[in-house]
Amino acid sequence: MTTGVTCHQPDRCYQGYTLFCETCEPPWPMGDRRLPIYLIDMEGRPVHVWHVATSVQSYARLLPNGNLLYPTHDRSRIEVAGIREIDPQSNVLWHYHCRTDHDFQVLENGNLMIHTIRDSLWPELGPELKRHPYIIEVTREKELVWEWHGEEHLAELEALLPPEGWEHFQERVRGEFSFDWAHNNTCQIIPPNATYEKERAAGKRPRFKPGNIVFSYRSVDIIGVIERETGEVVWAWGPGVLDGQHKPHMLENGNLLIFDNGTLRGYSRVIEVNPLTEEIEWEYTSEPKEQFLSRYISGAQRLPNGNTLICEGSKARLFEVTPDKQVVWDFVSPYHEEQCSGSIYRCLRYSPEHVQPLLD
């Protein structure tokens, strides 16, 4: 596969900078080895590279002051696991030690919402040890101010899913996913959105209220919404439609954008779902469909110009498509580290204004 930028239509792209890195959990000890995190321009040229002394997983976030927050690989050594803030010279300024897993968010008040994992017995899910989703909010002073345990909300899932959806859940949990029964890969904060306004205007319970949390149980093909104030799961959907999905998140128009991996289906797609009607209103696939496939990892981002940036993670391919599904920017990473995966978990496109403090 040709690497670098193979397509760039400047007048149709959202011009900015793309942040990514190769997922890597190298052999330990690492010694003097440092792993890179890249910020590239639209021509695929690195404008800044951080080098870190731990494993990496590419859902780092660039802060407005030019510093970077990054998490270690989700299955990395517990002794060094966690989230770190580094300056442009890659110096560690802050570290929160935790078993970070797949996703985290920076809240408006500066706190971090982090998805982590905990292993414990939970007989309702079956005998022996289980791995559970555990979401926490911590301050920069490392004070725990909110926590949520996924295993405590099974009854809510059963009530929200149709009978065949709950049976799908039980079959997966009794079978190959008996240990990592949820494998949650998402912790996305809901922004102001049109669906919330519609629910509020209708006098209904506002399930999609800004500040609520979207999760994604990949093992059982379920996405859902956690009500921030009560911790209750107030919406759930997916079995029979989704297949090993990643990064569902709410758009300003009130729809959910999802990378639907197609782990068993054999082709991937990016879909936009109306959560009130539960209908797919926009879908991207390739022709032939099997040409676009990442059975694991990956994600998508709706850009300010209406285009969608897609990370086809297993192929280290990042590309931008228009609403009418035309590819207007296409990049395959040429940056591969020895003993790393060759894959990219996620990417983020930032505006020139957001990046300027770093470049300055």
Outline of this structure?
With 360 residues, the chain is mostly beta strands. The protein has helices at residues 154-160, 163-174, 194-201, 352-359, and strands spanning 4-8, 17-20, 35-40, 46-52, 61-62, 68-71, 83-86, 92-96, 100-106, 112-121, 129-138, 144-149, 184-189, 213-217, 222-226, 233-237, 246-250, 256-260, 269-274, 279-284, 299-302, 308-312, 317-321, 327-332, 348-350. The strands form six sheets. Strands 1-24-23-22-21 form a five-stranded antiparallel sheet, with no helix packed on it.
Q: In which order are the strands of the major sheet placed?
A: 1-24-23-22-21
Biggest sheet layout = 5 strands, antiparallel
Any idea what the shape is?
globular
Q: What's the total helix number?
A: 4
Mean pLDDT: 94
Assign the structural class, choosing from mainly alpha, mainly beta, alpha/beta, alpha+beta, or little secondary structure: mainly beta
Radius of gyration: 20 Å
Distance between the termini: 35 Å
Helix share bin: under 10%
Question: Into which percentage range does the β-strand content fall?
Answer: 35-45%
Number of DSSP-assigned strands: 25
Task: List SSEs in N-to-C order.
Answer: EEEEEEEEEEEEHHEHEEEEEEEEEEEEH
Taking pLDDT < 50 over at least 5 consecutive residues as the criterion, the unreliable ranges are none
